[in-house]
Design a protein that fits this description.
nine-stranded mixed beta sheet; Nucleotidyltransferase, domain 5; binds magnesium ion; 4 helices; 228 residues; homotrimer; DUF4152 (chains A, B, C); alpha+beta; 2 domains
Chain lengths: 228, 228, 228
């Protein structure tokens, strides 16, 4: 099975480890044995000007996932929204009403569906590929989350080159290592069976430290700075 | 403390990783230091003809646990049902009504109790050993789950010998390794403190691969095939 | 950021692994990189005479944390109570009523606030340091929990010297090792990013064993005995 998935993660942090805004949406192609991505794409957000309501993320994810899926023609596309694995192209109002989610979630989805349902229907009509809202149960969505952390580290390196340093929060229980010519990352949850990723990056002249976010258990902070 | 426990797990999967039916009920004797089984028994189900409602599993588990308990005379028997550690022999209708579980759960247990309550009472009258519905809190129940995964791997090997290959899903966050003459397995959750198991098996002429189930995070898929 | 936190953990167990009472309240100073304590303090309870309602623990924790905070002057104090990170000095009745916790939780906090709110207000007036009820989200609270496990092991050694042996339950998913001259401990959850601790202890003439509590998954039992 060949699956495209997308997720958004990584946050710029202030001095007290509060998130200012999210950084990276990643889309990935995941193939058997489903432990890493064979292709990945990123779209960076502006963390200084970020809509933290969550709607920006899911829209960006759908658009980036469809872009990658047009190229690599997967069997299915997974989005990080836990509404029971439903096909996005079928999300009309009665279907949303019938979901077992909160009333607030229904309002959000009625709003989101205005853009996403036509996008998904058009994509399905052209390619036969379904986009499903499978959420946290999907391993490819988790791999996309790990890649959003890798691209967050890359963004932090570029930010530190210009501004001296950067402090970012990674997605849940994952680590990154900044190595010569690449950034490597992995899930810290062994129950996931060994999920990991890496991306090429210019890492010269950069130093870094990774440590637990003291205010948010199971999330790591990455600090990156210019070696004078 | 010497504890007998039973659990059911492992599923035959179709090509899209959907479960067709469950495979193995395992009963185990667990003794101090409570990390593995000193004795184990299996009863295989027919995954092509499986009642997925959950009632078949708990009945099979109770019967197999009692069978093993008659032999090894433990201090207590643990079943995988989370209804507060109550003794099964005491499950009459008013007691079930008073449980803090869903109405649906109460209907299921009124039905189950018809068989299990007399079984547990008879066993207790003869041996003085209680059968309790302790569920996920019990380490021996988790060890029984790991053994159901080991026996699922054994079943998959035998199925592959006849049919060329088998694709099975293991119980939650556990791994197996097919070694010369045996199958070894272990929990992937280090918080559990190192739970593991092994069973003898004829593993000659068999190849295998283990990888994350892409549709169900924290569950592994085992593929087994005949080395022609 | 320099954070003081406190937590209570470790239980004396009877022969069937049932808790008799809690053993140790630990307060810790945690500094960047937030993986262990740079200073720790303990107050032992009497497990044979312990109020298991939970009110004794939070009171002991607040008092011990303030004691340590007076010495080491942290930026903030974290307590293990999950009521949304609220400042304890602001806990008057209308504020407690407005918390999104159970009615029972509100009654407990109205009672607790009688002692803790004046303590926190006085401490804040004198030092400017806030005491916040951040709970499980705090890494320093988790490190305090690990230290309560270390001090529980120390208590068990002293108890075994007098009485021959001791059987104690450690806080959730952590391990300890009794080494020459010290007790080392660590979280068993790798998602936490490598939290650990150690304390000096006279460990001569002591033998020990660590194993999973068969009745409470993800909790370890420590047995300690005198090498006659
Ligand atoms: Mg997401
Ligand atoms: Mg079960
Ligand atoms: Mg506590």
């Amino acid at each position: 099975m060949r699956i495209v998935a997308a997720d958004t993660g990584g946050a710029l942090l202030d001095e007290e480890y509060n998130p200012i805004g999210l950084i990276a949406t990643a889309a990935v192609l995941v193939e058997k044995p489903y432990r890493t991505a064979t292709v990945s794409r990123v779209r960076y957000a502006d963390p200084f000007n970020y809509d933290m309501s969550g709607r920006q993320a899911i829209r960006d994810e759908a658009v980036l996932a469809v872009e990658l899926a047009r190229e690599v023609k997967p069997d299915v596309v997974h989005l990080d929204s836990t509404i029971g694995g439903i096909e996005i192209r079928k999300l009309d109002e009665p279907t949303i009403e019938a979901l077992s989610i909160t009333d607030r979630g229904k309002e959000v989805w009625k709003d989101l569906a205005k853009d996403l349902q036509p996008l998904a229907r058009k994509f399905w009509e052209e390619t036969g590929i379904e986009i499903i809202a499978i959420g946290k149960s999907s391993v490819p969505v988790r791999i996309a989350e790990i890649y959003s952390g890798l691209y967050t580290a890359k963004w932090a390196i570029e930010y530190a080159r210009k501004n001296g340093e950067a402090v970012v929060g990674l997605p849940r229980y994952m680590e990154v290592k900044i190595l010569p010519g690449e950034i490597a990352g992995a899930s810290l949850d062994p129950r996931e069976g060994g999920l990991f990723g890496k991306i090429p990056a210019d890492t010269e002249g950069i130093e870094w430290e990774l440590y637990p976010n003291p205010l948010v258990r199971r999330f790591m902070v990455l600090e990156v700075w210019r070696k004078d």
